[in-house]
Amino acid sequence: xxxxxxxxxxxxxxxxxxxxxxxxxxxxxxxxxxxxxxxxxxxxxxxxxxxxxxxxxxxxxxxxxxxxxxxxxxxxxxxxxxxxxxxxxxxxxxxxxxxxxxxxxxxxxxxxxxxxxxxxxxxxxxxxxxxxxxxxxxxxxxxxxxxxxxxxxxxxxxxxxxxxxxxxxxxxxxxxxxxxxxxxxxxxxxxxxxxxxxxxxxxxxxxxxxxxxxxxxxxxxxxxxxxxxxxxxxxxxxxxxxxxxxxxxxxxxxxxxxxxxxxxxxxxxxxxxxxxxxxxxxxxxxxxxxxxxxxxxxxxxxxxxxxxxxxxxxxxxxxxxxxxxxxxxxxxxxxxxxxxxxxxxxxxxxxxxxxxxxxxxxxxxxxxxxxxxxxxxxxxxxxxxxxxxxxx
Length: 392
Hints:
This protein has 392 residues and is mainly beta. It is built from two helices and 20 strands. 5% of the residues lie in helices and 60% in strands. Strand 9 (229-238) and strand 10 (245-246) form a beta hairpin.
């Protein structure tokens, strides 16, 4: 029973690095709702346009469909990192924004008879913005800034009673915090600036179930379902005149979501995959009242993976996707993001670990008098490492 110490050490160092979070201003599109949604399965799937609901992976945890954990060949730990750069324009002011952050980490412990237990954490959404508000009254300037996000901590299992079928379940604890600051600067010296701070603390639970079906090791079908997310929201307000005022606790009901995926091997070295994922935000309720500023969000993606015969340890990936956001209000509607992705994977450490990289190039646009289209670049990096003494 020998532990692969190099793999364990390298993975631990990466996770330590990923625990540090560096932020700069992000898109103003993240100022609505619960921020900008993060659709993250794993970095391999990101290189395939974000398609991975049916994607069998022997190295990396799947953060969307827990049923796929049972196909991981040995106990593994993996972590992911995201860099994002955005060129945007708000109220005729152009900004070049960038951020880097931890994107997710997980551990899958494999057992006998294709049984696996998984635990992990990943961001669901994040917000980080600064907006200069233009008004007819030129005697003052208003700034709106905000930051925060929602994350998911989960514990679950996967079981494959037959080679062609696997089922998975995870219980998810949701927590997050948002902070929004209004600041007014007056041009006249006799007036002082004014600011107010609103903080929103969120926590709750939901669950995820998933399944995958294999047909002759050539064609896979995957399905995942996320239950209604029941969140408790607690607001507090602070101004120069009010030290801190807490509002009564509110309940937010985020409707369910589901995804469908398929993967087919066109040959032993060429894989084609595609996904559809929907979040039913249209029926979101705040204290049992429907919120009309949201609509259902849809994401469709396709990807192609190629493994050269002479480079069995390397894989090259390409993908495309379209994402229709849930935001829909009087100042912004029909928010859509379209992009292409490139990815690369490399197996090392005697087949015990894999390095994955992916890049996204996308344009986000909407019908809005305030926000213009954005050019977005994302780079993701992950490493997955296993231990020999857990190999099946």
